[in-house]
């Protein structure tokens, strides 16, 4: 599979009607960082930063359709993280924790995410280890290593300190009742109008 080309110089956003600004959008492991303008082939390109740290230029159509999800690392060093389960291949070849990792990144990084105001806008962030990886591992690899498998389908990711980041020392797998207790502590300490789902991770 061919890899996306290197990033190109950022261009001013068009002001034409119907233009869709993809800046800050998270697609798989990619975060759109700037508009690249029209390439010589006439197609619109966007400069993106992959979770592994590499920057590439991606066709807007492929981003919107979800056809390009990384700089190419999903088909090299990251292939095991996407296609390998604890004990065998899963349905659609996707790791059971991938959506958890992808969604927590989105609500912290993507301004268009409906939950961004409760996370990224509040200063909640994803630690560099889970975002960019380290020691040759991708951010997702590190997340799986640090969190381990869910104890049960009833468990979901929970931040011990609701004002703290998504990081190994601040996250755990917790049941709904455990998250309710944690949310109550947060709401008593810092009263705001949040539902349980909004207050928990």
**Strand tally, please?**
6
Count of structural domains: 2
* Broad structural category: alpha+beta
Widest sheet, order of strands:
1-2-3-4
Distance between the termini: 35 Å
Strand content: 15-25%
Average pLDDT for all residues: 78
Q: What proportion of the residues is helical, as a percent range?
A: 25-40%
Describe the structure.
The chain is of the alpha+beta class and 201 residues long. The chain folds into 2 domains: 1-76, no CATH class; 91-201, no CATH class. The chain contains 7 helices and 6 strands. It has helices at residues 60-64, 79-83, 98-109, 128-132, 139-147, 176-189, 196-199, and strands at 26-27, 30-38, 44-50, 55-59, 156-159, 171-174. The strands form 2 sheets. The chain has a 4-stranded antiparallel beta sheet with strand order 1-2-3-4. A two-stranded antiparallel ribbon has the order 5-6. A hairpin with a 5-residue loop joins β2 and β3 (44-50).
Provide a quick synopsis of the model.
This protein has 201 residues and is of the alpha+beta class. It is 27% helix and 15% strand.
Using brief descriptors, characterize the structure shown.
201 residues, alpha+beta, 2 domains, four-stranded antiparallel sheet, two-stranded antiparallel sheet, 6 strands, 15% strand, globular
Topology of this structure?
Elements: E1 26-27, E2 30-38, E3 44-50, E4 55-59, H1 60-64, H2 79-83, H3 98-109, H4 128-132, H5 139-147, E5 156-159, E6 171-174, H6 176-189, H7 196-199
Antiparallel strand pairs: 1-2, 2-3, 3-4, 5-6
